[in-house]
Design a protein that fits this description.
single chain, mainly alpha, 2 domains, two-stranded antiparallel ribbon, 2 strands, elongated
Length: about 140
């Protein structure tokens, strides 16, 4: 690899030159999460970003998958439910579909466990820092 190479260049995702992106062929189907060729989309499927195979699933399954996507958007990569999206997340706790409700309740339980672990780790770090004589500032606090 040269000085200006990166993993993206090696995989062929970038064209030579800084900042030029190579367009990927086809469209992205949000239901199955795959990039499919244009031939796999019907006329209205292009704009809806739903391939022909996923369009056959039915309205109920598409709605379920959309709700799952919306639910997952409320959760950060660390597994926390973002405070700004807490109101949106609580809507899923009262959802009419029992599968969505159960998934939201499970995510809420995992969020509580993650927050408790983070809180315990932060308290342990503070105790260790106090024992070592380290002075905490406001910038060192983690906003939980």
């Amino acid at each position: 690899m040269s000085q200006w190479s990166c993993v993206c260049c090696e995989l062929g995702l970038w064209v030579s030159g800084v900042g030029k992106r190579k367009k990927l062929p086809g469209h992205y189907c949000w239901v199955c999460g795959r990039r499919r060729p244009n031939e796999r989309f019907s006329g209205s499927g292009h704009s809806r970003h739903v391939c022909r195979e996923c369009a056959k699933l039915g309205a109920e399954e598409l709605a379920y998958r959309q709700h799952v996507r919306d639910l997952e958007r409320c959760i950060t990569y660390e597994g926390f439910i973002a405070r700004k999206r807490r109101v949106t997340f609580e809507r899923f706790l009262r959802h009419e579909d029992p599968r969505i409700r159960a998934m939201a309740e499970e995510r809420e339980r995992v969020d509580a466990e993650n927050r408790e672990l983070a809180r315990a780790q932060r308290e342990a770090d503070e105790l260790a820092a106090d024992a070592a004589g380290f002075e905490w500032t406001e910038d060192d606090e983690v906003p939980f």
